[in-house]
Amino acid sequence: MKPLNEKIRADGFCFVAADDARLLLGILPDWPAFAASWNDMPLDTYMADGGRYRRRRHATLSVAVGATAAKLEARQPHYQSLDYNNLNGGIARHFEPIRSDIIAGASMSVLLALCIQVFSDLLPGRSWHVEVHQFRIEAGVQQQGMPTPEGVHRDGVNYVMVLMVKRHNIAEGTTMIHDASGAQLASFTLTQPLDMTLVDDERRLHGVTPVVPIDSAKPAYRDVLVITFRAIANG
Q1: How far apart are CA 108 and CA 234, in angstroms?
Q2: In this structure, is the dihedral angle defined by the CA atoms of residues 77, 25, 232 and 86, taken in order, positive or negative?
Q3: Is this prediction's pTM over 0.85?
Q4: Cβ-based neighbours of 137, under 8 Å, separated by 6 or more
Q5: Quick one: how far is CA 125 from the chain centroid?
Q6: Does the structure show a pLDDT above 90 at 80?
Q7: CA dist., res. 195 & res. 86, Å (int)
Q8: Cys-Cys link to 133, which of 20, 52, 186, 226 (CB 3.0-4.6 A)?
């Protein structure tokens, strides 16, 4: 497989199928507990559309220049300007923290290390502000689930990783990649655990179509991990 940094440098994004991701990541001994940690997340109460379909936890980390591991920082709010999030931006949003055992566990550590390796190669000599988000998007008869209710967008960072953790009883949820002019460049669906996409957020926009239940009588949800890297000016 062509190195991820080469694909991102050439195309502004990279889709990695689960089989290839397993080769990159190796054995993740705590994966069952990691995936199960999505089951107890609180509701995201900041949805300006009134939606009650998103559950979320959040953590802030940092990476020093040349470091190969991230450092957990004190709890901080998540903030996006209205330029990047015209639905929920413009306010400091305080989310419950990701559990300490999950942040410090093998799966998260390996995923962060991969991001550090790839993104630091693309933009060397920088320290990083890192945010990690656990999302569960729920779908039901009364309300479809909206993975990106703000539409096709940028996050206002340098790089983004989106990792599929679990899909349960849902259809659709297609990821779309657009260039700066708004033209669609690619579309694909994260379906299997460890399917992932990495995006150069300065060059590409991304969005995900709504998810709907397959069997409306049963719970339906989409669990993903989102990791964002924003370079910090040094000196």
Answers
A1: 26
A2: negative
A3: yes
A4: 53, 54, 145, 146, 147, 173, 211, 221, 222, 224
A5: 24
A6: no
A7: 28
A8: 226
Rounded distance, CA 97 to CA 75, Å? 7
Q: Sorting pLDDT into bands at 50, 70 and 90, what band is 235?
A: very low
pLDDT at 113: 97
Q: How many alpha carbons lie under 13 Å from residue 48 in its C-beta half-sphere?
A: 12
pLDDT at 207 over 50: yes
Q: Which CATH number fits domain 4-232: 2.20.28.160, 1.10.10.10, 3.20.20.480, 2.60.120.620?
A: 2.60.120.620
Give the three-state DSSP class for 189.
Answer: strand
d(CA 128, CA 130): 6
| Overall size of the chain counted in residues | 235
For residue 84, the model assigns a pLDDT of 65
DSSP states along 70-110: -EEPPP--B---TTT-TTT-SS-B--PBPPHHHHTSHHHHH
Burial, 112: exposed, middle or buried (Cβ in 10 Å; 0-12, 13-18, 19+)?
buried
CA atoms within 13 A on the CB side of 46: 20
Contacts of 168 (CB under 8 A, 6+ apart): 219, 220, 221, 222, 223
- Report the alpha-carbon distance of residue 231 to residue 114 in Å, rounded: 16
Q: Phi first, then psi: what are they for 211, rounded to 5°? A: -110, 145
Task: Tell me the pLDDT tens digit for each residue of 21-71.
Answer: 999 999 999 999 999 999 999 999 988 787 889 999 999 999 999 999 999
